[in-house]
Write a structure and sequence with these properties.
Shape: rod-shaped
Order of helices and strands: HHHHEHEEEEEEEH
Largest sheet: 5 strands, mixed
Strand content: 25-35%
Number of domains: 3
Helix content: 40-55%
Length: about 200
C-alpha cells in the first residue's frame, strides 16, 4: 500500500472527516495517522469543530448514485416497453375491416400462364394477402390483412395490383388448385372467390 506524506494527508483529512473517501484512501490515511501525531491531531480537531446535524447525510453521493441508477432502469424499462409495443403492432396481422359486397367487388381471381393471381383494386382490397391454407384438397384459403399501424392509414387507396397466390404447378401433389376461398383469420370460409369447375 502506498504511503502518504503530511501534505497529502492534510488534503485528505477533510474528506476523511466527511466520510467520503474511498476505502483504499481511508486505510492509507489511517495508517499514516497511526505514526503521525500531528495529522491525527488535525483530524481530531476538525471532527470536534464541525457542527453535528442529526439528519446529516453521511455519504451524499450514495443518494445521487441510487437516483441515477433508478432513472436509468426506468428509462430502459420504458424503452423496452415501447419497442415491444412497436413490434406487437407491426407483426400482428389482422383481417381488414372490409367484408361484403365492396370487398367481393374489388377482388377477382384470374388465371395466367404463371399460375393464379388475385386482382385487387380500390380501398376495400387494401392490405397484404395472407395465405391461411394452400393445397388442402386443391383449395387455397386466404384473407387480406394489415398490421395495427395499417388500420390508421386514412384515405390511402391501393392501385390496381396483381398478387400471385399459386404457381401454375403445385410443389406437392399432381392436382392443380381448383378453388380459392376468402376466409377469416381462423380459416373459416366466408366467400368462394373462384372455382375451376364453375369456369370450365
Amino acid at each position: 500500500m502506498k504511503e502518504v506524506n503530511c501534505n497529502v494527508a492534510n488534503d485528505l483529512i477533510p474528506l476523511y472527516v466527511d466520510d467520503v473517501l474511498s476505502e483504499d484512501s481511508k486505510m492509507m490515511l489511517e495508517k499514516h495517522m497511526e505514526t503521525c501525531a500531528e495529522c491525527k491531531a488535525v483530524a481530531e480537531k476538525l471532527k470536534t469543530s464541525m457542527p453535528i446535524a442529526e439528519d446529516r447525510d453521511i455519504n451524499p453521493f450514495k443518494k445521487l448514485r441510487k437516483k441515477i441508477l433508478m432513472r436509468t432502469i426506468l428509462i430502459v424499462v420504458v424503452m423496452l416497453g415501447l419497442y415491444g409495443a412497436f413490434l406487437f403492432c407491426d407483426l400482428t396481422v389482422l383481417p381488414v375491416f372490409y367484408y361484403g359486397p365492396d370487398l367481393m367487388k374489388d377482388l377477382q381471381v384470374v388465371e395466367m400462364e404463371e399460375g393464379l393471381f388475385l386482382r385487387r383494386e380500390n380501398l376495400a382490397s387494401r392490405g397484404d394477402v395472407v395465405i391461411v391454407d394452400d393445397n388442402a384438397n386443391g383449395e387455397i384459403k386466404l384473407y387480406l390483412g394489415e398490421n395495427i399501424f395499417g388500420r390508421f392509414r386514412m384515405g390511402w387507396t391501393e392501385p390496381l395490383t396483381y398478387t400471385q397466390i399459386a404457381p401454375d404447378k403445385p410443389l406437392f401433389g399432381d392436382e392443380p388448385f381448383s378453388k380459392v376461398s376468402y376466409c377469416d383469420k381462423d380459416g373459416k370460409v366466408l366467400y368462394v372467390l373462384w372455382e375451376k369447375d364453375a369456369e370450365d
